[in-house]
Amino acid sequence: MKMYEMRKGGRCGIGFIDPNTVNEYTWKIDAYHEKHVEDSMLEFLKRLKYNEDILLPYNFQFHWILCIIKVDTGTVELLDSLLKKQSDYTILFGIVNRAWARFISVTPGEWKERLKWFRPKALKQVPGTDLCAYCVCENIRMMTSERNRSQKQEW
């Protein structure tokens, strides 16, 4: 819906990755699906490389987080409402980093050799609640609806 809303409003600059395609559950099914998830991530990067931000809602261990990939700077912001341990993100790091390595090898341009990951301040959920999906949706809403337009966002 946000993609449609942004197009209707004449704004661009934000890409969206399908969380049904890139997620831990699909990756864990078998070796074929591991490759499919990484191939899909590579295709998303190639198709969305000119966007200011690429949003990846990601589900793992029954928990939702939001990754904001900034291709031009080679950074990934990880918005986690529970601040899980870094080791909990191992599969996500692997999927995105391997796809990035393939992306820079097949896509002409001056790309950063490695992605830099960091966790900025983000909405936090109250411990003991299951509001992580709400926090992801609210972060997406704030990024798409409340952001100022830049030249890259105009049609």
TrEMBL record:
User: Could you name the domain of life of the organism this protein comes from?
Assistant: Eukaryota
Q: What is this protein called?
A: Ubiquitin-like protease family profile domain-containing protein
Sorted keywords for this record are: Hydrolase, Protease
What family is it from? Belongs to the peptidase C48 family.
Q: Which PANTHER family match?
A: OS02G0472350 PROTEIN (PTHR33018:SF34), OS10G0338966 PROTEIN-RELATED (PTHR33018)
UniProt-listed GO biological process terms: proteolysis
Spell out the molecular function terms from Gene Ontology. Answer: cysteine-type peptidase activity
- Pfam families referenced in this protein's UniProt entry, alphabetically: Peptidase_C48
Q: Where is the Ubiquitin-like protease family profile domain?
A: 28-151
InterPro entries, per database record: Papain-like_cys_pep_sf, Peptidase_C48_C
S-adenosyl-L-methionine as a keyword of this entry, yes or no, is: no
